[in-house]
Amino acid sequence: GRRAEIGEVRVNPLLFKIDIRQFRLQEADGRPLLGFDRLFVDFELTSAFRAAWTFAEIRLEGPRVDAVIAPDGRLNIAELFDALPKGEPAPETAPPRRVLLHHAVVRDGVVSFTDHSHGAPQKAAVQPINIELRDVTTLPDRRGPYTVSATLAGGGVVSWDGQVSLVPVASSGRLDVRGFPLTTAWRFVQENIAVAEPTGQLDANLRYQFAYRDGATSLKVDGVEVAVTDLTLKERASKAPLLALDRVNVIAARGDVIARELTVPEVSVSRGRVAATLARDG
Fold first, then answer.
1. What single string gives the DSSP state of each residue in 95-147?
2. What is the pLDDT of residue 130?
């Protein structure tokens, strides 16, 4: 029920290399859904002599995803996956296929998000998305260092670096958010709150440890640092701010997400002003 276009496909059957250019997938009415400028896959012939499928490199350039939530709340990407043919589910006891990927790269990715489910359409985008992974594998007890960075269209940068293991499922690393404007988040909740578009930006970073084994999940965070600067909140019909803060800091917080525990040693507020009004009805 969708339309696909491919600009060029090159296959080297001797070296097991595939190069696909200018792929686009559109809705039946022509609206963009997803695509990429180039996909290059280098499959190693030595896989025939190993116990694992081995890829020297997988490179994805210019990927784009146009995610849209319809007025009825349905997500176009979810509808796409629901429409795909369903195969027989793999037995839960079956071990994962042995795969080794030496180098994976995503360059200049774009994810756009449009929400039609709450009145006027709201849009946001993340670009460019750059990801580089090394030694991605399902081989037991193998993990590699990974880095991910993305620039938000409205301002701000999100970055992550750490390690991931697929067998067992585990990950540890650091997540950083820099210069995220609060107005970007406000646009998606403005229909539900009586506050005008705020000013200010968010900076945050944390370390985490995640693991899943034998049906048990653990997720712990520490070193959580959050700073909100130049925050101003106003009522929609008022020019005077309800709340104005130069800076709010959350320092050295830590927690256990699964146990729902959070420890915040220190919160500091600098140069704040609060304007509270008691109405006649109390």
1. PPP-EEEEEEEEEEEEEEEEE-SSSS-EEEEEEEEEEEEEEEE-STT-EEEEE
2. 85
pLDDT tens across 60-90, in order?
Answer: 999 999 999 988 888 898 888 888 887 776 5
Arithmetic mean of pLDDT over the chain: 87
In this predicted structure, the answer to whether residue 117 has a pLDDT above a threshold of 70 is yes
What is the β-pairing status of strands 157-165 and 143-152? antiparallel
Confidence of residue 40 (pLDDT cuts 50, 70, 90): very high
- Per-residue pLDDT tens digits for 149-158: 777 767 788 8
- Among 72, 63, 88, 68, which Cα is nearest to 80's? 68
Q: What is the DSSP letter of 70?
A: -
**Residue 120: φ, ψ to 5°:** -65, 140
Q: Provide the 3-class DSSP secondary structure of residue 226.
A: strand
Cα–Cα distances (Å) from 220 to 141, 165, 170, 186, in that order, read 21, 17, 12, 28
DSSP reduced 3-state for 191:
helix
The pTM score is 0.64
Question: What count of Cα atoms within 13 Å lies in the side-chain half-sphere of residue 155?
Answer: 12
CA distances from 152 to 113, 134, 177, 222 (A): 12, 25, 10, 25
Is residue 278 helix, strand or coil?
coil
Q: Which residue type occupies 135?
A: D
Q: Which two tokens stand for residue 197?
A: 């578009």
Closest of 134, 111, 100 to residue 36, by C-alpha: 111
**CA–CA separation, 53 vs 47, rounded Å?**
5
